[in-house]
Design brief:
Layout lengths: L1 H7 L13 H18 L6 H10 L13 H13 L7 H11 L13 H12 L4 H12 L3 E3 L1 H6 L11 E5 L4 H16 L3 E5 L20 H14 L10 E6 L5 H6 L15 E6 L1 H9 L3 E4 L1 H8 L8 H9 L6 E4 L1 H15 L3 E4 H6 L8 E2 L11 E2 L17 E3 L1 E5 H7 L2 H18 L6 H10 L3 E5 L1 H7 L7 H29 L21 H4 L7 H6 L8 H14 L14 H5 L13 E6 L2 E6 L19 H12 L10 E4 L4 H13 L4 E2 L2 E4 L7 H4 L1
Parallel strand pairs: 2-3, 3-4, 4-5, 5-8, 12-13, 16-18
Antiparallel strand pairs: 1-12, 2-11, 6-7, 8-17, 9-10, 14-15
């Protein structure tokens, strides 16, 4: 096919030894005018299109119900007036293959990008034409991008939820386990990724009803969940995805870790289920000192102290439990175990790493509830409350679990348009709508958590792309200065927007006990009126020219107002990996550095070439690969951003095969000391003679 041939010519150098980057634009035009045009169903008018799609159950009916046809036409004409153009062949192909609505038989394409923007804006606009038009503007300008579930499902008749993922705590009972499995099945069916915390469960060979060695431990539950996720998916549109988290001081953790070994026994092997390690400060302290430690059997703790393992602050409890002869325990070597975690990550990418005490130290709701786990991508950190589940035999007391409503700002486009306060406000309101309409009655703990918190997670993408365009090296001090100013600003405007929503709809449940209610006296937020988060260097000052950057005085006034009026959303920011949606945006993924200046991706029997955003033959050396960066510098960048994100950042480590497990373990220790809340994957690249990526293209 012509478009593939043209796209593949990008990496064939011309007579001057230059990459033919312009061939990507030629491939884009050939793709749009060829395969897309041939499959795209034509309509004579917007009225005809909407009538057809509503009649055949593709779209919800917005005409007359929420908007007049004149309103809809007005918004659509506004969208078309922006003259949107895809910036790369990959952007267009990702959209049309993964996001555009198709006919039931898959043969026809029923949406252009402008059509998608329209239907998403109509849904998120809540019937208000101004809101819908504002959202449409930010979507078509690619300043704001909802996460895949929202972008995929908004406005569709036959669709899953617009929520990205869910977090569940598993109670230590037959009823609790049964609820967790059934809830996971339902949530997977409607399109969400599901993470579960197994820390409460009895370890292998603990007693059940005083019968010794009766417990099968966490692995049986993990295997059951894996099988469920492979079966329950969103009508094949999105595969089921799940993860289980376990505290490293749980006796079954080493067995869970072994489930990801290349040569794992089939009885415990987890082929598709992701795993995560919950790591307390005490474990890191023991590892750093190279002292032996203990893992504690959860039921023995609960039996004596009436408290579950996932509720314990190990910094306060460890010595008590270690010296208590009534507490069943298992000797471990934390340093060796940390190295084993690194080894398993190097082999499989797993486990995810979550620093639970760090997450709770910077928790804006620390006096409301405890953070106990994270999600599949390690950026969600919210409190949960336990349930008392009786099943069919009695009344159930449902606690709170977590749902994630995510979206991202495209840093380059946001900075270019210099409309940051308004952009953030529109994004916060759009994500709040997703939270407000999410009603998953089949999973009451999720419903309770969503109703109590109105939690959202506004993130960002295209950091590396923007820095390269502006002539800034990702690992430089200037890059960190930019990130420090930008993300402090995003937090300011996010809080301000949520406060304005609270004036109309009220504050979230638990606001009075939160850090927000303390105003300038907050341990977590007072830094903003004590420290200056405005640009310092001339380079960064120029980047923010024409943009209102909040001062210390602005922060003082905002925190004072928030104390008075409250905020609507208990959680506001989280930085997800973005992945496929960043392709549509022609953006670098999340806030992570790129791995290749030009990606070569194979889909089926064809190869797609994807040059990084803003790449030219002249600036290629500015685009340093993550694999050629010092990971300590990358961690420094993430730590800078984390200071301004109330939840977490999906952080990937990129290592070459010459790095040892000790090297990776040192990254864990450094990340912990720098205040990161989590580490997502570790990606390992085979290096041949340390060849330069630029030279090898």
């Amino acid at each position: 096919m012509k478009h593939i041939e043209l796209n593949n010519q990008v990496i064939i150098k011309d007579d001057n030894g230059q990459l033919q980057l312009h061939k990507d634009k030629e491939a884009l035009e050939a793709y749009l005018n060829g395969p897309v045009a041939k499959r795209l169903r034509k309509f004579n008018s917007i009225e005809e299109r909407l009538e057809y799609l509503v009649k055949h159950d593709y779209y919800k009916c917005f005409q007359g119900f929420m908007y007049s046809i004149e309103d809809i036409k007005s918004i659509y004409e506004f969208i078309k007036s922006k003259n949107f153009k895809f910036q790369s062949y990959m952007s267009a192909s990702k959209f049309y293959e993964n996001y555009a609505l198709k006919s039931n038989d898959g043969k026809e394409i029923l949406e252009t990008y402008e059509d998608k923007v329209l239907i998403v804006a109509l849904e998120l606009g809540t019937g208000d034409i101004k809101s819908a038009k504002d959202i449409a503007e930010k979507l078509i300008n690619q300043e704001f991008q909802p996460a895949t579930p929202t972008f995929l499902n908004a406005g569709r008749k036959r669709a899953g939820e617009m929520v990205s993922c869910f977090l569940l705590n598993v109670e230590d009972s037959c009823e609790g386990i049964s609820y967790a499995v059934a809830a996971s099945n339902h949530l997977s069916k409607i399109g969400g990724g599901v993470a579960l915390n197994l820390t409460r469960l009895r370890a292998s060979n603990e007693p059940i009803k005083n019968i010794k060695n009766a417990s099968g431990g966490v692995m049986g539950v993990a295997k059951m969940l894996e099988q469920s996720f492979s079966y329950f998916n969103q009508m094949g549109a999105r595969q089921g995805a799940g993860a289980v988290y376990l505290n490293v001081l749980h006796p079954d953790f080493e067995m869970l870790l072994d489930s990801k070994k290349i040569n794992a026994d089939e009885k415990i092997r987890l082929a598709t289920l992701s795993i995560g390690a919950i790591i307390p400060d005490k474990f890191m302290e023991l590892a750093e000192k190279n002292e032996l430690g203990y893992a504690f059997y959860p039921h023995s703790i609960y039996k004596k102290y009436n408290v579950h393992l996932d509720e314990i602050d190990m910094t306060k409890w460890y010595d008590l439990l270690a010296n208590d002869k009534d507490i069943q325990k298992k000797e471990i070597n934390p340093r060796e175990l940390l190295t084993r975690i690194a080894q398993t990550q190097q082999e499989s990418g797993y486990p995810y790493v979550m620093y639970i005490d760090t997450a709770n130290r910077e928790h804006t709701l620390k006096d409301v509830g405890k953070i106990k786990m994270s999600n599949l991508c390690c950026e969600i950190f919210q409190y949960q409350t336990p349930s008392d589940i009786k099943g069919y035999s009695g009344d159930n007391n449902w606690g709170q679990d977590i749902s994630c409503n995510l979206g991202s700002l495209n840093i380059a486009n946001v900075m270019d348009n210099k409309d940051i306060e308004r952009t953030v406000d529109i994004a916060i309101n759009a994500l709040t709508y997703v939270s407000n309409v999410t009603n998953i009655r089949e999973v009451p703990t999720i419903q309770n958590g969503n109703n109590a918190s109105n939690a959202i997670g506004l993130g960002a993408m295209n950091l590396h792309g923007y820095l390269v365009r502006e002539g800034i090296v990702y690992t430089s001090q200037e890059a960190r200065e930019f990130a420090n100013v930008f993300f402090a600003m995003i937090r300011y405007y996010a809080i301000k927007s949520s406060m304005n929503i609270a004036k109309q709809r009220g504050a979230f449940k638990g606001f009075k006990q939160s850090e927000y209610a303390k105003g300038i006296e907050s341990d977590v937020l007072r830094k903003y009126y004590l420290n200056d988060y405005t640009p310092k260097s001339d380079k960064v000052k120029n980047l923010f020219d024409g943009i209102a950057v909040p001062t210390k005085e602005d922060w003082y006034n905002l925190l004072t107002d928030v104390k008075k009026y409250g905020i609507h959303n208990a959680y506001l920011t989280a930085i997800a990996p973005t992945q496929s949606i960043s392709y549509v945006q022609n953006a670098t993924s999340s806030v992570m550095p790129i791995t290749e200046q030009i990606e070569v991706r194979t889909y089926g029997d064809s190869t797609t070439i994807y040059p990084m955003p803003f790449l030219t033959n002249e600036n290629m050396l500015w685009y340093q690969s993550a694999y050629r960066m010092d990971m300590l510098d990358v961690i420094d960048m993430v730590a800078t951003i984390q200071e301004h994100v109330d939840q977490g950042i999906s952080t990937t480590l990129f290592v070459t095969d010459d790095k040892t497990t000790r090297d990776i373990a040192r990254y864990y220790i450094y990340a912990h000391k720098k205040g990161l809340k989590s580490l997502y994957y570790t990606r390992t690249k085979m290096e041949r003679n340390n060849e330069c990526l630029v030279c090898s293209v």
